[in-house]
């Protein structure tokens, strides 16, 4: 290898290490903020749990830098359990081995039909490089698009590469401008989905979404590992990551946990706007939701950990709003260990 190539290779390696170090610091800071917020409700973390988190991080996960998220999990559950995957460890070490570059496939919402066919997505059109086309990429007339908008009371535009609820637009049937739609950038137009009434009683107009987290095992089998409901806040048009309320859901029964968690990790027993308690509520059709997620993951088992955002619809059926490469912190904190049988905690050994 020439000197110039060695210099370029070394520079890329240094840049990669710098990015990884920054991500680790951000994850540590996020965990410390979460732990401080939990302390306002739970009290300071027990010294024994704190020590267990530090010891486990150093002995099993390669360094005490991963202790903060273990401390968050312990604070949430009031115990320490071996097998938890800290969010920092997942991002820094496991993600590249579990999902690799396939982690980013979900950014291309316009590829839903290519990946999955007509499988529960409420897509009625795609905007692709300045063209407005049907979900299967065939021609789409303005009248067909207008009819779809009228039938569902409007459309929702979701751009490619968007996340955390950003970039979503709601379009009224009488305000569709085909030329303007072509300038929005790549994305999908979905019909307006109406959730089962059992999920809409919490005081927000935002569409509640059920997140199902699935993994592909070494033998190719797909299973659900965690599930939680994401609720919006009052006056919000859709669920936004920075303000959402998340409620763990029992995978077997669909039962709500007694406590949900605000976006800043403060546990709450009721929705903060309506005051309606979570205990005693059920997600209808939980088995169908889980089966839908597992079936879809089985069709595209490239990224091995994926989160699916679904809606049990009024009148039956399951709508698949979107999917993404998975995140682990909330699942592990409230329902974990979720991945202890997969060997992810050994990835740092090479």
How do the helices and strands line up, and which of them pair or pack?
Elements: H1 3-42, H2 47-60, H3 67-77, H4 87-98, H5 112-116, E1 123-128, E2 131-133, H6 142-152, E3 155-159, E4 169-171, H7 178-181, E5 187-191, E6 209-216, E7 222-231, E8 245-248, E9 260-262, E10 267-268, H8 286-299, E11 305-312, E12 318-325, H9 329-335
Antiparallel strand pairs: 1-2, 1-5, 3-4, 3-5, 6-7, 6-11, 7-8, 8-9, 9-10, 11-12
Helix pairs in contact: 1-3, 1-4, 2-3, 3-9
Please describe what this structure looks like.
- It comes from Roseisalinus antarcticus.
- This is Alpha-L-glutamate ligase-related protein ATP-grasp domain-containing protein.
- It holds the Pfam family ATPgrasp_ST.
- Residues 188-323 form the Alpha-L-glutamate ligase-related protein ATP-grasp domain.
- The chain has helices spanning 3-42, 47-60, 67-77, 87-98, 112-116, 142-152, 178-181, 286-299, 329-335; strands at 123-128, 131-133, 155-159, 169-171, 187-191, 209-216, 222-231, 245-248, 260-262, 267-268, 305-312, 318-325.
- With 350 residues, it is of the alpha+beta class.
- The protein has three domains: 3-99, no CATH class; 101-109 and 195-325, D-amino Acid Aminotransferase, Chain A, domain 1 (2-Layer Sandwich); 123-191.
- The strands form two sheets. Strands 10-9-8-7-6-11-12 form a seven-stranded antiparallel β-sheet. A five-stranded antiparallel β-sheet has the order 2-1-5-3-4, with helices on one face.
- α1 (3-42) packs parallel to α3 (67-77), α1 (3-42) crosses α4 (87-98) and α3 runs parallel beside α9.
- The protein is globular and about 65 Å long.
- The two termini are 25 Å apart.
- The mean pLDDT is 92.
């Amino acid at each position: 290898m020439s000197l110039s190539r060695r210099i370029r290779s070394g520079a890329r390696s240094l840049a990669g290490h710098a990015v990884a170090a920054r991500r680790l610091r951000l994850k540590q800071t996020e965990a410390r903020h979460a732990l401080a917020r939990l302390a306002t409700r739970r009290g300071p973390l027990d010294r024994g749990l704190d020590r267990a988190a530090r010891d486990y991080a150093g002995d099993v996960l390669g360094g005490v830098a991963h202790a903060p998220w273990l401390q968050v999990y312990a604070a949430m559950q009031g115990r320490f359990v071996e097998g938890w995957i800290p969010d920092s460890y997942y991002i820094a070490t496991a993600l590249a081995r579990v999902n690799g570059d396939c982690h980013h496939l979900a950014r291309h919402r316009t590829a839903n039909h290519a990946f999955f066919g007509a499988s529960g997505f409420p897509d009625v059109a795609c905007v692709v490089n300045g063209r407005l086309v049907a979900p299967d990429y065939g021609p789409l007339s303005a009248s067909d698009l207008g009819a779809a908008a009228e039938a569902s009371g409007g459309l929702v535009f979701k751009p490619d590469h968007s996340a955390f609820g950003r970039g979503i637009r709601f379009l009224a049937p009488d305000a569709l401008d085909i030329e303007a739609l072509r300038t929005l950038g790549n994305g999908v137009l979905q019909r307006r989905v109406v959730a089962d009434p059992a999920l809409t009683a919490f005081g927000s107009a935002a569409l509640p979404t059920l997140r199902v987290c699935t993994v592909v095992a070494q033998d190719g089998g797909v299973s659900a590992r965690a599930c939680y409901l994401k609720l919006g806040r009052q006056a919000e048009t859709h669920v936004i990551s920075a303000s959402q309320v998340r409620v763990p859901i029992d995978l077997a029964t669909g039962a709500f946990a007694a406590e949900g968690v605000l976006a800043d990790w403060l546990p709450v027993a009721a929705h903060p706007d309506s005051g309606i308690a979570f205990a005693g509520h059920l997600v209808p059709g939980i088995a169908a939701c889980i089966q839908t997620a597992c079936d879809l993951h089985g069709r595209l088992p490239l990224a091995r950990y994926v989160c699916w955002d679904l809606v049990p619809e009024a009148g039956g059926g399951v709508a698949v709003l979107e999917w993404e490469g998975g995140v682990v912190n909330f699942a592990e904190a409230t329902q974990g260990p979720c991945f202890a049988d997969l060997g992810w905690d050994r990835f740092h050994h090479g």
